[in-house]
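Predict the structure of CCAAT-binding factor domain-containing protein.
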Amino acid sequence: MAPRSSLPTSSKKRKGDAVEDELYASIQQFEEQLVAAASSSKSSLNPLADLLDIAVNATDAQALSKAVYALYRVFVVIITNGLLLNVAGNDEARAVRAWIQVKLNAYTRLLTGGLLATYSKDQHPHAPANHLSILERLTTFPTEISEVNKWWVEELGVRPPKPKSAGQDDDEDDTKDINIDDADEENEDDWRKFFDEQETDENPKAEQKNPLGRLHKLTLHQSLHSLSSHKAVFTRAWLNLLPMLSHGPAEYTKSLMTRALNIMHRGVMPHLTRAVMVMDWVASCVDYGPYFVTSTDSLTNSPTGGTVGLLALNALFILIKEYNLDYPSFYTRLYAFLDRDVLHLKHRARFFRMTELFLSSTLLPVTLLASFIKRLARLSLNAPPAAIVMIVPFTYNIVKKHPSLMAMIHRVDDTFEAANDPFQTNEKNPTLTNAIESSLWELYSQKHHYHSAVSTLVRIFEEAFTKPNYSLEDFLDHTYGTMYESEGKRRIKKEPATGMEVTPFAYFPGPAQNLDEAGGDKVNGLWVFS
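Done. Here is the predicted structure for CCAAT-binding factor domain-containing protein.
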């Protein structure tokens, strides 16, 4: 006996389709009756209650949509014909008007009920992604008040009147600007001033940056014409969003944080009222980057930061360089990111750009720089050719800029052996690794690399350091694909051998001596391996 199907039978399906068709026809019929009744003001509006009941009790999405739009068109006709206007009339007209108002309120509750969510405002699962998607689209931001010149509502483009300040009457307010200094004296104990940009002699326009007065006293119209108000709203939007990005499933939050960090340094921090207000969140992305990885680097015996941490380093460096943020463990955290995974990540090229910038200062201690180039040299032993091609010019530029590191490539101590390398791979502090006492023997071994581009490039360390620094951008985009393409386009200077004479059993003399005299080796008799 065949198993019973869980799908409805054809008769039940036809019956269900008939019921739906009948319901759709009823909705259309009620709408036509109500439109005619509202237009003539003589027929009854009682079908309005029936149509509203269909919308409230509908279980099918299509039926609900048809009923809602039908009610919308009916109420448009009712309102257009003035049936809800509070005009003089008899008791019957007032009763009809009150009844229609009750039905309109019920329709409004139906629409708003469809917009309600069961999630709380603080735990809505889609709020962070939606919030971030909106802020990502803000590719430009006004930097001068003259750039605030486009309005969705044209009437708001009219300049608002200037607010009155203490000691000024109405006549003086029409001819003089407000006294910003007096306003500041009145509010000298206001904590909000802590977040305002300080006036300096280098910026003579600072006094007139916000002629409308204190931000928290501005009306909505005045705020729209204040550049400081725009920056304050932009800052609040990001400060409310960033904590939300750190809550939720790991993969989900990692994706959102990566998107935010991609634009943090160029599209967010320059437009905040004070960029240092995001320092806690950025530092947490660097310090707690191991939360987002699933592996542990054996070289450091500790989890590494992953993609989120790499991107956060860029924003953190901007805060240190341009906003005087104090972060003493910056280079310790940067050193922790040098693991095997960093040479295989999607953001590998960006990481090397940032690292070259971070190590460009001539005031950095030699012991710290030695740890970085030694660590990269050690990683090159297991790195793909495209990564080694980046490591070699990166190391060359650092050694050329800091001649004290020359000892690492010219060490001729007979007692030094790779097995007794003084470099401490498990040390997390880059100033205590003893790398300066070691050598770059790992790069020397790359002379015998199977890929000619690597073996040729690494020989630069055997020559005098008279060549200019390499442009690292020329080596960051190399992949297996680009290397294969360049090899395919290379012109052959010397034709390779097309054939060679191979004597039988030349490569397998051992087995050939122990063969059965009668049968012999049939394989080597028919084939020659080369």
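Strands lie at 296-297, 302-303.
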